[in-house]
Amino acid sequence: MSRLPRLYIPGMPQLIVQRGNNRNPVFTDEGDFQQYRLHLREAAREAGVALHAYVLMPDHAHLLVTAPTEAAAGNLMQRLGRRYVRWFNDRHFRSGTLWEGRYRSTVVEPGEWLLAASRYIELNPVRAGHVADPEHYLWSSCRHHLGLEPDPLISDHALYWGLGNTPFDRQAAYRALLDSGSPPSELDSLRYAAHRGWMLGQAPSSSADAAANRRLAPLPKGRPRKNIAPA
After folding, report:
1. Which of 135, 140, 160 minimizes the C-alpha distance to 151?
2. How far is CA 85 from CA 77, 91, 142, in A?
3. Which of 6, 131, 165, 180 is deepest in the core (most CB within 10 A)?
4. Is 142:135 a contact under the CB 8 Å cutoff?
5. By 3-state DSSP, what share of the chain in percent is helix, strand and coil, each rounded to 5?
6. pLDDT value, residue 223
7. CB atoms < 10 A from the CB of 208, how many?
């Protein structure tokens, strides 16, 4: 069975997940984190991709982006992977692959699910037990969104700006969003969508369906029902 292309809908954000091969570390110290951030900023600029949120964990990375074309997100990840893997291998005297095959991605409905995806990303270090408060983790976009430290990598999405009329209002609303945490059902939906590549959000609209490069959800299981002529 042929593999479906990664889902793309013009103008809609994408959640990207990339893991280390065999769950091995891809960041071992501050130098690795800093270098990845440098390559991420350069690759996003060259690919024309807007980065709205991110977290770099020891064995994986999450990115929330909006890409201007179907090929742009792949272009970003190709540039980023090629540069960082070469740098990482040279620095750590190793060779071979670093990442676990293809990166995974899904389209995120640009409504409440976008903020849910951003929260999911930035609470990752808390769920993993690295910090008690997400603002204490240095390798994510959380401090930017809370107004603690501007991050040149981030292009704020319009929905973040919609949280308030002033920076203080937006930061307070985002803090409340983080403090409320991600409900288990929300986590399940995010993980399933990212792993399977189906659209994350409510029932797809006809306009989204028409603009997508492939179907947005899996086909119903089982054989299609036959139409039975009336007696």
Report:
1. 140
2. 11, 10, 25
3. 6
4. yes
5. 45, 15, 45
6. 54
7. 19
Is the CB of residue 55 less than 8 Å from the CB of residue 139?
Answer: yes
Domains and CATH numbers, the chain: 14-200 (3.30.70.1290)
Determine contact, residues 146/175, Cβ cutoff 8 Å: yes
Mean pLDDT per 10-residue interval, the chain, length 231 residues: 76 94 94 98 97 98 96 95 95 93 89 93 97 97 97 96 96 97 93 86 58 64 49 32
Contact 68, 21 (CB under 8 A): no
Spatial distance between the Cα atoms of 56 and 39, rounded to a whole number of angstroms: 13
pLDDT at 230: 39
For residue 151, the number of C-alpha atoms closer than 13 Å in the C-beta half-sphere is 26
CA distance 133 to 116: 17
Are 221 and 14 contacting, i.e. CB atoms less than 8 angstroms apart?
no
Which residue type occupies 99? W
Looking at residue 21, the DSSP 8-state letter turns out to be: G
Evaluate whether 194 touches 104 at the Cβ level (below 8 Å).
yes
Six-digit token string for 205: 């609209």
* Residue 1 CB-half CA count within 13 A: 3
What angle (nearest 5°) sits at the alpha carbon of residue 97, between those of residues 94 and 101? 160
